[in-house]
Write a structure and sequence with these properties.
This protein has helices spanning about 1-25, 35-60, 75-90, 95-120, 130-150, 155-165, 175-190, 195-200, 205-210, 215-240, 245-255, 260-285, 295-315. It is mainly α. Helix 12 (about 260-285) packs across helix 13 (about 295-315). The two termini are about 35 Å apart.
Length: about 325
């Protein structure tokens, strides 16, 4: 009962923040301001669901609460693609690719990357999930280094364009992109809904899940594929979220008081949406656009990640 109350309170809080975001300072302009804000709100909802689901499921597979899907290199691949596009096409890259070319190319690139590394890493019959995590972390560092090398080859004007893609932003979201993202996230949710019971067993640990009859490697491979799609959608739609998943997942665990994914997953999604709304409202009404959503979220979540790291070190 208490857990359901927590979920209801979270829903009410998100509804209140959403109304405030859409109406405060809009002047009730239904011709432009409110429709544009509704598009941003929809992007926050889709992006929040993608971040919440991918973070909690990834931590369940990894068995570690201070990891995010970013360690697999998905966001690093996205940033490398943006840097290469700017290097090759220059400041006209946005015009050449059109409104949706970059969005679709980013999703296809990240999904293709995930398929390649999953096929390579899960060849053997007894592959531990620790190996993909280690390889993903190394690839993230290598790809990040190459991205920095590419950045040194572009002009300041081109770097400004690249910087726009490297931060969280809801201003570049277009209705067609939002429609595609909503469809993909919905398909992932439907595909993953049958794995809720399996996720609860996997949260007990790999050995315990195997002893209970779970085909751990098959389910881990399937879930990592779904995570790749979610990360690709959220990153292409709103930008890299870095450590946000750590904050979202751990706050969901604390509120749910349970390991069951029927509670933690909805709370994680609501937490991510709430963070986007609070950050956007702060940018507009507190800082008067003198900072960005990405800076606020990365500052808060980076500090939380540091606290968690020190806490787990002290426990160990």
């Amino acid at each position: 009962m208490r857990r359901r109350v927590s979920l209801l309170v979270a829903f009410v809080g998100i509804a209140a923040l959403s109304i405030a975001f859409v109406l405060v300072g809009s002047g009730l302009d239904f011709a432009y301001i409110i429709p544009r804000r509704l598009t941003k709100l929809a992007a926050m909802i889709v992006g929040g669901i993608a971040v919440g689901l991918s973070s909690i499921v990834f931590q369940t597979i990894a068995g570690n609460r201070i990891l995010t899907p970013a360690v697999m290199g998905y966001e690093a691949v996205y940033l490398l693609l943006q840097a290469l596009l700017v290097l090759i096409l220059g400041t006209s890259s946005l015009m050449v690719l059109g409104d949706y070319g970059n969005f679709l190319a980013s999703i296809l690139m990240m999904v293709a990357y995930s398929l390649v590394i999953h096929h390579w890493l899960f060849k053997g019959p007894q592959v531990d999930t620790g190996q993909p995590l280690l390889v993903g972390l190394v690839l993230t560092m290598v790809i990040g280094t190459f991205t920095q090398f590419v950045q040194l080859r572009i002009s300041p004007g081109e770097f400004a364009i690249f910087q726009g893609f490297s931060l969280i932003s809801f201003d570049r979201v277009e209705p067609v992109q939002l429609l595609w993202s909503t469809g993909l996230v919905t398909l992932v949710c439907l595909a993953g809904s049958r794995s809720l019971a399996v996720l609860d067993l996997m949260a007990l640990g790999r050995d315990q899940a195997l002893s209970l009859g779970v085909d751990y490697q098959r389910h881990a491979r399937l879930l990592l594929g779904l995570i790749a799609v979610l990360v690709a959608v959220s990153t292409s739609l709103i930008g890299p979220t870095a450590f946000m998943g750590v904050f979202v997942a751990n706050l969901a665990y604390a509120c749910a008081k349970s390991e069951r994914h029927r509670m933690t997953l909805p709370l994680g999604c609501l937490t991510a949406i709430g963070m986007f709304l609070i950050a956007q409202l702060s940018v507009e009404h507190v800082f008067n656009y003198r900072t960005t959503v990405g800076i606020l979220i990365n500052l808060a979540c980076g500090a939380w990640f540091l606290v968690l790291t020190l806490r787990f070190r002290d426990i160990a």
